[in-house]
Specification:
MutS, DNA mismatch repair protein, domain I, 6 domains, Nucleotidyltransferase, domain 5
Length: about 900
């Protein structure tokens, strides 16, 4: 059997692929990206496309599949979401250029980019309203640090941290990809897997702090990192790893990054992953954004404003001055509704400046990105005209000041660009007429070639005095001048023969050319390509002008986002009837008429009013509320709304309440709901205990703790003991402000023993054996949990409900009559008889004269007088 011969093209493919063994290789072949071997098999399955074959290798067919270049972004997004990385191999020359090296030469190809979850920049691959972070975690001796960057916006941050804080910080940032030293990958793989983050191990050299310093200084063109502040070796290692990875994935075309900002953990509220999940801050428990707090409060109209809102909500501030500055901006827009309305209209037309700048910096932009900068600056100019910095609070005045100073650039872009440019530079047509004389001439030749030739024909007719002279074209001669044979002598004699050069004679015509016609022919034939080349040159010029002002443009983008957020929160406050909270530095936490923003909006859609409630955890003697009452009464809603109001206040937003005084909290912990973790072998109760342990081990005296039903996942006495001891620990050791909901009514006795504990309950009423939830939180303790009534509301069979009442009555009677043990009581009940007891029939509904009377009435036949009489009859019948 003949040995397989590897073709030059396949040899090139295998060589390129060897450099990217862990990525799918998109190998450019004309208008398609082709994939071969195992890459093809994996991609075909992931993308649900046909798998074919091309040639043989080692006696086996070579699997192949491909995707069109023009729609490759959609396929890239699918592959990235399914956990793949893609190396994009482009043709580095044209086939014509390759043939110059020999007729069988293979077109040169190379990888121009490695596409990974954290390095996306294309508009179609990103959520415009969310950051796409690439993070790096570094450990140097006893120090650790986390750095993160969004290359689509240029945001670059770093913070020192304890290694145990990795999980909470990943929950806050939700990066798409995390870089980690390969020697510690196994130590943190489980932590990272909890968040669905793509984990990328790098060699120790990428995290070397000395090399990292050199990379950072080279990137920012500075002599020393001291220009940006003082960083630990771990912070430098984390930042340097990001820059090294970007250099690898972007093939040397580094994105436009802002100078790194150092964050301090003590400047923001610390919120762990379980609390974020329980409170549904940015994602609902179902996994989507709908139903989350972020979804309920997001009224921003720009992508940058939406991203700023998510950052603020994920990282509420602890600095009172910062919080009050943000609140003052919202207050100003609430007070000046006409200005706020006009600002929002202008902001709606602001494009995503940050991402347009980033794409321009790494050569993945197009004419529309140029137009985005122009349109953004146009709106910034319009907004500036509406605002007077003298009348604005500091935050808005500072933002307004950053909108100016772009007159020259805006004038250039206005003059250079058409109103609606095409998507791609190669499409041409984005430079406005009149901006460049040479381009206008090329376009005229391209678009009006016939008119130009006709004008030349008229000129030649006048010059020669031959009205019948023609300019024609064929594939052999190109453009030529033709006259009949009767004019031959005139054209071949002086002075015309000096200008008109004879080219061909036919039976009845003579054909000539002139230098200017030959030149015009060349210009016409090349006009399209020439026009596109000129536009590309002008594109590069405009891009350079923009990037030269990138720092100022970034400040403008940030200012527009700040204005968007202030006006959005003002619009929310007005529409939802929210109030400005009072922020203090003590342990105050007083909320009057508080409401849950997500639940309230949901109830409103159903036409149901939300019952507001007060809360007061302002220190001795009531910094802990022990909340009892039945399920479905609203305990969990009350707990969550108190936490959410506190977070909204420290974010710098008005809050859903009549009034609120918030002493800043340092940490927020929430243990609400039941869930298991089967992958780690953790039961619901174990998960509950792990999260409770984390709270008791970390909460300080400025924390706010929300606990719901601690101890319910085990035996009654075990659960009561754990809940009892947990509450005592919060009171005596943590000394945190807390809301503690429980069904263990025995715990209400603690209010009389612990000075900072106060009982509260959710009011209910009973009517004919049913429970009516009033959703009103009042001081005091519940006498029971109304579980059987709730079970009936849930739809349990009537026989089951009746039997449950019977058992409950027996147990309660035994307890009242001398503390008889449950086992003795159960032995007296026919619970385990050989034959199961007959189903207990549901009690027949009592006769009601009022209902009988109502059945006889047709409301459409009643006059107002009849209706009034009927009311009196119904009232009398109801007394019978």
């Amino acid at each position: 059997m003949a040995k397989d011969t590897v073709t030059p093209m396949m040899a090139q493919y295998l060589e390129i692929k060897s450099g990217y063994p862990d990525a799918l290789l998109f190998y450019r072949m004309g208008d398609f990206y082709e994939l071969f071997f195992d890459d093809a098999v994996a991609a075909a399955e992931a993308l649900d496309i046909a798998l074919t074959k091309r040639g043989k290798h080692l006696g086996e067919d070579i699997p192949m599949c491909g995707v069109p270049v023009h729609s490759a972004e959609n396929y890239l997004l699918t592959l990235i979401r399914k956990g793949f990385r893609v190396a994009v191999g482009e043709q580095m020359e044209s086939p014509e250029e390759a043939k110059k090296r020999g007729s069988k030469s293979v077109v040169a190809r190379d990888v121009v980019r490695l596409v990974t979850p954290g390095t996306l920049t294309e508009e179609s691959l990103l959520d415009a309203r969310r950051h796409n972070y690439l993070a790096a975690f570094a450990v140097v001796r006893d120090d650790a640090a986390l750095a993160w960057v969004d290359i689509s916006t240029g945001a670059f941050h770093v913070m020192p941290m304890a290694t145990v804080r990795l999980g909470p910080e990943l929950a806050r940032l939700a990066p798409s990809e995390l870089l980690i030293p390969d020697e510690i990958e196994r130590d943190y793989a489980e932590t990272v897997s909890d968040f669905g983050i793509s984990l990328t191990p790098l060699s120790r050299g990428s995290f070397d702090s000395t090399s990292a310093t050199d990379r950072l200084c080279a990137l920012f063109k500075i002599a020393s990192l001291d220009a940006f502040g003082t960083f630990t070796r771990a912070e430098i290692a984390a930042m340097g790893a990001i820059v090294d990875y970007l250099d690898i994935t972007q093939k040397g075309k580094l994105p436009l990054l802002r100078k790194p900002l150092r964050e301090a953990s003590d400047r923001t509220v610390q919120i762990d992953a379980a609390t974020r999940r329980n409170l549904e801050l940015t994602h609902a428990l179902s996994g989507g954004r709908a139903g989350s707090l972020l979804s309920a409060i997001d009224r921003t109209v720009t992508p940058g404003g939406a991203r700023l809102l998510e950052r603020r909500l994920s990282s509420p501030s602890r600095d009172i001055t910062t919080i009050n500055d943000r609140l003052a901006a919202v207050d100003a827009m609430v007070a000046d509704r006409p200005t706020a309305k006009s600002l929002r209209e202008a902001l709606r037309r602001v494009p995503d400046l940050d991402r347009a700048l980033s794409r321009l910096a790494i050569d993945r932009a197009g004419p529309r990105d140029l137009a985005a900068i122009r349109n953004g600056l146009t709106q910034a100019e319009a907004i500036t005209a509406q605002l007077s910095t003298a009348d604005l609070p500091p935050l808005m005045a500072q933002a307004t000041g950053a909108l100016t100073g772009h007159d020259d650039l805006l004038s250039l872009l206005d003059a250079a660009l058409v109103a609606e440019p095409p998507l791609l530079t190669r499409d041409g047509g984005f430079i406005a007429p009149g901006f460049d004389t040479e381009l206008d001439e090329s376009r005229q030749l391209r678009d009006e070639g016939r008119g130009v030739i006709a004008a030349m024909q008229t000129e030649y007719a006048d010059l020669t005095g031959i009205p019948s002279i023609k300019i024609k074209h064929n594939n052999v001669l190109g453009y030529f001048i033709e006259v009949t044979a009767t004019h031959a002598d005139k054209m071949l004699s002086e002075p015309l023969n000096e200008r008109f050069k004879h080219r061909q004679t036919t039976a009845n015509q003579l054909r000539f050319t002139t230098p200017e016609l030959s030149e015009m022919e060349t210009r016409i034939l090349n006009a399209g390509g020439r026009a596109l080349d000129i536009e590309k040159r002008l594109y590069d010029r405009l891009k350079s002008e923009i990037l030269a002002r990138s720092s100022d443009l970034t400040d403008t983008a940030r200012a527009l986002s700040e204005l968007d957020l202030a006006t959005a929160l003002a619009d929310l406050s007005i529409a939802e009837n929210w109030c400005r909270p009072k922020i203090t530095d003590d342990r105050a936490l007083r909320i009057t008429g508080g409401r849950h923003p997500v639940v309230e909006q949901s109830l409103r859609r159903d036409g149901t009013p939300f019952i507001a409630n007060d809360a007061d955890l302002s220190g001795d003697p009531s910094s802990i509320w022990l909340l009892t009452g039945p399920n479905m009464a609203g305990k969990s809603t009350f707990l969550r709304q108190t936490a959410l109001i506190t977070l909204l206040a420290q974010m710098g937003s008005h809050v859903p309440a009549e009034s609120a005084e918030i002493g800043t909290i340092s940490q927020l912990f929430s243990r609400v709901g039941a869930s298991d973790d089967l992958a780690r072998g953790r039961s619901t109760f174990m998960v509950e205990m792990v999260e409770t342990a984390a709270i008791l081990n970390q909460a300080d005296d400025r924390a706010l703790v929300i606990l719901d039903e601690i101890g319910r996942g085990t035996a009654t006495y075990d659960g009561l003991s754990i809940a009892w001891a947990t509450l005592e620990h919060l009171h005596e050791v943590n000394r945190s402000r807390a809301l503690f909901a429980t069904h263990y009514h025995e715990m209400t006795q603690l209010a009389g023993k612990l000075p900072c504990v106060e009982n509260a309950t959710v009011a209910v009423r009973e009517h004919d054996g049913d429970v009516i939830f009033l959703h009103e939180v009042i001081r005091g303790a519940a006498d029971r949990s109304y579980g059987v009534q709730v079970a009936r509301l849930a739809g349990l069979p009537d026989s089951v409900v009746a039997r449950a009442r019977e058992v409950l009555d027996a147990l309660e009677k035994g307890d009242r009559e001398g503390g008889q043990k449950p086992k003795a009581i159960i032995d007296d009940l026919p619970l385990f008889a050989a034959a199961p007891p007959a189903p207990v029939a549901a009690p027949a509904p009592a006769a009601s004269p009022a209902l009988d009377l109502l059945d006889q009435v047709n409301p459409d036949d009643l006059t107002p007088r009849d209706a009034l009489d009927m009311l009196y009859k119904l009232k009398a019948a109801s007394r019978q």
